[in-house]
Amino acid sequence: MKEEIIKKLEEIVGPNWVDTDSERVISYSREQTNNAYDLVTPQPVEGSVIVKPAGAQEIAEVLKYANQELIKVIPKGAGTGLSANAIPTEPSIILSVERLNSILEVDEENLMVSCETAVTLGDLIEELKKNDKLYFPLHPGDEGAQIGGMVAMNAGGVRAVKHGIMRDQVKGLEAVLPTGEIVSFGGKFGKLLKNNAGYDLMQLLIGSEGTLGVITKVVLKLYPEPKATGTLIIPYQKRRNAFQTVPKILQEGIIPMAIEYMEKEEIEDAAQGIGKEWPSKEGDSYLMVILAEDKEDTLYDKAKVIGEICEEVGAGEILIAETNAEQQNILEIRSHVLPAIADKIVDSPDVTVPRSKLAEYLDQLDQLAEKYNTKIPVIAHAGDGNLHPIILKEEGEVPSYYDQLKEEIYQIAVELGGTVTGEHGVGMLRLKFLPLQLSQAEQQIMWKIKEAFDPNEILNPGKAVVKVLN
Amino acid sequence: MKIIVLIKQVPEMERVKFDTTRGVINRKSAGVEINPFDLNALEAALQIKEEFAAEVIALSMGPTRAEGVIKEAIARGADDGILLTDRKFSGADTRATAYLLASAIDKIGNVDLVIAGEMTVDGDTAQVGPQTAEYLGLAHIAYVTKLEEITEDYLTVVAPTWDGNYSKKINYPGLITVTKDLNTPRLPLLKRKLEVREAEVEKWGIADFETELDPQDVGLKGSCTRVRKIEVPSPVEREGKMWTGDQLREAITEVAQICQEKDRMGE
User: Fold this and answer.
1) Going by CATH, does the domain composed of B2-217 fall within 3.40.50.620?
2) Which residue in the set B12, B184, B191 is minimally distant from A324, CB to CB?
3) pLDDT digits (tens, 9 = 90+) for A192-223
4) Total structural domains in chain A?
5) Is A304 in contact with B194 (Cβ distance < 8 A)?
6) How far is B173 from chain A (nearest CA, A)?
7) Do both A159 and A182 map to the same domain?
8) N or C: which end of chain B has fewer CB within 10 A?
9) Torsion angle, CA of A153/A154/A156/A162, rounded to 10 degrees?
């Protein structure tokens, strides 16, 4: 990076907050995608500079300067993204928001929390433990993930069946546009439940993967903490039966907090990786159902119905965890699956299909596995119809059929009315698969929106949206 | 073979709050659960049961609402459970608790092995297990971390003493207290949990005891301990200070000075 750029950045944020140390620059340039899908993830280029502004105002000045000088800017959160979302492909300003890490207010009257962008999911959970009544239901996985990043990626994860994904939780948002303007959405305080003033640009920024603006502040919905929670572990011999169970549970009017699917080998690797033991010894695949209810009796009534449904589809003996420690234990094992299997896998696409099509999708995956003479293990947020079929390494390498298999995994999902990414986003990894799902006109309008926000294409270029010219 | 597992209902310690002005636990601030170490004790009993077709009985003392932990133990695999509950049992310290538990074990009769968690997370004394054994005149080993050999006549276990781990043998009848390192407790089966929710828990009050128990030795009357006040220390916040590159010398001097003051410089 040129000396004059460094100097100007030091003027804006102070010399202590600009870092050009080559090791740290590479470390900041990488993200979880590099660890999880090492063989198929672009490596970051060298020569970037890390900048750590103190707040929205400094971010605005950095962006104004970058926009004027046409320097690329990569907004950087905790680096927990999983589709090559914030890896610089040319020397860039890596704009780390890490200093914006305060929880500003827990608003008990409005049931909302305002936080700066770099507050982590773990920080939020800790803070809300102090509150007897309120909690934040979502748990996308890594508790190191930052709220701003979770919003930018529209994260989903484990506990999204009952209350929805990140998009459904955000009520207010402050962001800095690539041209340097600071904007606030959702009214003055960002606490409105109804707001029809103009286009909903807040929803546009949610899930925009850092391509439209740098999120600096977020107001999230909180919920009354359920009095009774329980986690069921349901073992199956055949995975199709597990997926068949999902719509049946929902049809009964039971909306659990989470319905997760995993397979024996992966979940046992995850448990072992963190020195724990997976509780069920039966079956080859499992559903994990988290129930959260107002009363213990309601919880058991629902658990009973789930038990009956599972018996009909031929599940094994259902276990129930009720103590906080035991439920947390199971959630931790589930959250560790991806790191635990990183050595074995090449990639793990992120498809979502309508929940009614889950079993059919599984059948087609089995056919694909047969066609390529491989195994396709699956982990899934089954209650959301969101699956991660796993493409395994062959002798430690990317198999020759990788590209073809991946495309077919997406193709069959799209044909069943699904999407090429349910929660991890497009990033760089899924850019070329977008046309499987989006028409030319749809992609064109997306690019026009990108141009409207970021006319000089400085912010997180080459991610999330395909450049389509008329 | 008959095994008794001692269990206690405790507040969820992660959530419980202390009333610092009154010096007591605010019991409304959190739910209740089975003492976590007692789950390890139960798991040990169930593993022995799997080898020798033993009868496992969960035994607890507490208010009537503590029947939840007996049900929980049965759902996890215990064959039966008894709750010792009576207003006269309340206010018990470890001595009175151990005396009552020992009396109940005596009344149950023909017990080969008693297993308890190393301590309860709300009391933290680790006394009740060994005290119960003393009342019963049983051999006992505390803080068991491993069951090395399980036979119908004796157990060989590993338990630490100071810095060493010792392999110890205990003949039945005997009592052990176990640590969380011993095993990973199994989860209850949903089916069994649903069954026991409807079931009645056997309860023994003072009137159910005959010669086994002296009423003067239970509850507050039988306790030697009086808790005057519980002090809850306020949490100590870790202080942090950041120096930047140009303050390197200053930083080194200050850190060295702090280490010296706190006697952390070593040689």
Assistant:
1) yes
2) B12
3) 999 999 999 999 999 999 999 999 999 999 99
4) 4
5) yes
6) 31
7) yes
8) C
9) 170
